[in-house]
C-alpha cells in the first residue's frame, strides 16, 4: 500500500499521464461538455493527484469539490494548483486515503464522483476498489460516476514487433534472438501499441460493467471463454486486450485504448503465444480461448492475466458463428432463411 | 565494469537498438553501399552484441570478421545468429573484453574496425575507449574505422514539454507542478526528442573528432565556450545537444541524432535552464555559454555535463558575429565591405 502511494509521488508518473492527450481530452470533454450536470453540485475526486480533475469540476460550475489524495502530492502539488487557479473556495484538498476519510457530520453526500483510476488492462495497478468504497460511503442515491461504464475487449492478433520483424532485420535472420526475447518477456503481458493491421478481429467484449452497481467481490476474478472467427487472414501470435470507459451525460464521451484509437499511455496489453501455438489463419478461422483475470493474492491492486488456447473443434461455438466450419455455415444459413421467411 | 556488461545481457536493450531504424539503416548502408571496402578484408566488430554488424560485414564480402563481445550475448545470441545466417566460416565470435583479446601470433592485423559504441550525448555510457584500444592494438596502418568521424552540436532551445505545456493544461495553470518537475529532473540532463521548431539556432559544432587519431586522454574532458546569435525569436529555456557520426567510403553515410532527423533511441540531450535564467529572445540575440563534458571520477564510462550561461556583454563574440549588438553589426558590415572591394 505504502509503495503504491510513494510511487505516485514521483512527479514523472503524473507528467506521463498529464501529457497523455486522449486521457486529458476525454476527462475535459466529459466534464466541460456536460456542465449542466456539475452546476452547483457537490463532487468528490477520488485519487485527485495533482488536482486537475477537481479544477475541471470547479470550472464546470461545481459548488464544492472534495479532492481526496493519499500521497503527499495533495500538499506538494494539488494545494498550489487549486490556489493558483483561484479555486480555493470550491475545492477542498484532503490528504487522506479515501478509506480513512469521514464527511463532516453536517455535510451532505456528494452528487458526483470523478476519478481516473484505470490501470493496465483496466484493473492492473488501478484503484477501482477505492472508487467503489467512495461510491458506497459518500455518493447520494442516484448520484453519478465519471466514468460510469467500462468495457474490456479482446482480439486475436499478430505481434510483428516480437515475431516477424526478427525474421529479416536488414537481411539478417534473428529468429533465435526473438525466441529468447519472447522467453524473457513471457513472465508478464506486453504493454505495447499495436496497429489496426495487427488485429485479426475488431475485438469482442470480454467484460462489461456499470460502476454504479459492480461490487468489489465481482472484481476478484473475471473469466471469459469464447470461440471467435477471424475477420481477416493473418498470423495468430497473441491476444490483444484493451478497454474503454464511458462517461455519463447528453454529450457522452468515450475514452478508448483500442489500437484503432490514438495512442494512450495505457497502450494495449498483449499476451504473446508461444511459438508452437502460433498459426497462420485464413479469415473466418475459429479461435477458441479462455481468459482469466484474477486479483493477485499478494497485492490486491495487481491482477494476474492468463490466456489459454482451446481446441475450436471441441469447444461450443456461439450461435450464429461466422467461422468457416461446416456446422456454423449451415446454422448461419438456416438462421438467415428463417429471418427472411 | 561488470554491471555494464550485465546490463547488456538484457535483451530488451538490444531490442530497442535493433528496432531503431535510423541506426540500423545507417550501419547497413555504410557497409552495404561500400562493399568494395570490405571485399576480402579482415574486420573486427568491437562490442558485437547480437552479431548483426558482423553479419553485415560478412555479407558485404569480408574474408574474416572477429566479433568481440564481452557479455554472454556472445554465446547466448551471436553464435546462433552467425550460424543461422550461414556465416560461421567468416565470422569468429569471441566472448571477451577487447582489452583481454590477443590476436593469434600468426594472424594479421585487421583492415577495418566496425563498432556501434555511441552513448547519450555521444560519450555518456558509450564504449569509445574500447574502440580506441582496438584501433591502437589491432588495426593496420591506414586501416578504416566505421564510423570514422563524430561531431557534437549544441543549440539554444525551447523546452515546451517542461515549460509552456504546463502554463495551460486544458485551461488549468500547472506552473508550480512544472517547477517541481524540473527540480526533480534537474540532477541530470533530459533525454527527450525536440521538434525542429524548438531550436533557436540550427546548431553549432561544439566538438569534432576523427576516430583515427583521437586519444583516450582527449576524451577525459571536452570544453567549449561560445557566443551564438539566435536565428529565430523564441523562449530560451535550455541547450539541446546532439551528435552525428560519419562513415568512410564513396557513398558516405551520416547517422544524425538531430531534432531535424528521424527520431533515434538516443533522442537529444537537453540541459534545462533554471526558471530565473529563461528569457524570451528576439532573433539575432547573443547567447553566451560554456559547456563542460567531463568523465566521471567514479565510472570512466559516464560523463558529467555542465552548461553555464555567460554574459554576452562581457564575453568575446566571434568575428563575424550575426548578433544584433552594435559592435557586431559594424564589424560584419566592415568585413562585407572589405569583401566587395
From TrEMBL, chains A, B:
Transmembrane segments: none annotated. GO terms for biological process: methylation. GO terms for cellular component: nucleus. The keyword Methyltransferase applies. Residues 150-308 form the Protein arginine N-methyltransferase domain. GO terms for molecular function: histone H3R2 methyltransferase activity; protein-arginine omega-N asymmetric methyltransferase activity; protein-arginine omega-N monomethyltransferase activity. CDD domains: AdoMet_MTases (cd02440). It is an enzyme of class 2 (transferase). Keywords: Methyltransferase, S-adenosyl-L-methionine, Transferase. It comes from the Eukaryota. It catalyses: L-arginyl-[protein] + S-adenosyl-L-methionine = N(omega)-methyl-L-arginyl-[protein] + S-adenosyl-L-homocysteine + H(+). Signal peptide: none annotated. Its EC number is 2.1.1.319. This is type I protein arginine methyltransferase.
Amino acid at each position: 500500500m505504502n509503495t503504491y502511494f510513494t510511487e505516485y509521488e514521483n512527479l514523472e508518473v503524473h507528467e506521463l499521464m498529464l501529457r497523455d492527450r486522449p486521457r486529458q481530452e476525454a476527462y475535459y470533454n466529459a466534464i466541460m461538455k456536460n456542465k449542466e450536470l456539475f452546476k452547483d453540485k457537490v463532487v468528490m475526486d477520488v485519487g485527485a493527484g495533482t488536482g486537475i480533475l477537481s479544477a475541471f469540476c470547479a470550472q464546470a460550475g461545481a459548488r464544492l469539490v472534495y479532492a481526496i489524495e493519499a500521497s503527499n502530492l495533495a500538499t506538494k502539488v494539488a494545494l498550489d494548483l487549486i490556489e493558483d487557479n483561484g479555486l480555493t473556495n470550491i475545492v477542498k484538498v484532503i490528504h487522506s486515503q479515501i478509506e480513512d476519510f469521514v464527511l463532516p457530520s453536517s455535510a451532505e453526500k456528494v452528487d458526483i464522483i470523478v476519478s481516473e483510476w484505470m490501470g493496465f488492462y483496466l484493473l492492473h495497478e488501478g484503484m477501482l476498489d477505492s472508487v467503489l468504497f467512495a461510491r458506497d460511503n459518500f455518493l447520494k442515491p442516484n448520484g453519478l460516476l465519471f466514468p460510469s461504464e467500462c468495457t474490456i475487449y479482446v482480439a486475436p492478433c499478430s505481434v510483428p514487433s516480437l515475431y516477424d520483424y526478427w525474421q529479416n532485420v536488414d537481411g539478417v535472420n534473428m529468429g533465435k534472438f526473438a525466441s529468447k526475447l519472447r522467453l524473457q518477456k513471457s513472465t508478464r503481458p506486453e504493454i505495447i501499441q499495436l496497429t489496426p493491421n495487427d488485429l485479426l478481429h475488431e475485438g469482442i467484449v470480454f467484460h462489461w460493467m456499470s460502476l454504479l452497481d459492480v461490487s468489489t467481490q465481482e472484481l476478484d476474478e473475471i473469466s471469459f471463454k469464447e470461440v471467435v472467427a477471424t475477420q481477416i487472414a493473418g498470423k495468430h501470435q497473441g491476444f490483444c486486450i484493451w478497454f474503454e470507459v464511458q462517461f455519463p451525460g447528453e454529450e457522452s464521451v468515450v475514452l478508448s485504448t483500442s489500437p484503432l484509437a490514438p495512442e494512450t499511455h495505457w497502450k494495449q496489453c498483449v499476451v504473446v503465444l508461444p511459438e508452437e501455438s502460433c498459426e497462420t489463419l485464413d479469415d473466418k478461422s475459429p479461435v477458441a480461448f479462455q481468459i482469466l483475470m484474477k486479483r493477485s493474492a499478494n497485492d490486491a491492486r495487481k491482477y494476474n492475466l492468463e490466456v489459454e488456447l482451446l481446441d475450436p473443434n471441441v469447444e461450443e461455438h456461439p450461435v450464429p458463428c461466422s467461422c468457416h466450419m461446416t456446422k456454423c455455415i449451415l446454422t448461419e444459413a438456416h438462421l438467415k432463411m428463417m429471418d427472411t421467411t
